[in-house]
Amino acid sequence: MLTSDKTYNLHQIDEECNQMMDRLVEQMKERQGVTEELKM
Fold it and tell me: Exposure pattern of 28-40 as b/e (b: 16+ CB <10 Å)?
């Protein structure tokens, strides 16, 4: 495997992980009733 292929694959994995984390955080906020008002 070429280095550029590895770099591309790692970047794809990183992007997918970040998207999954964003979805999980949103789900947790909804389940726990976190709103913008609570943040202030």
Answer: eeeeeeeeeeeee
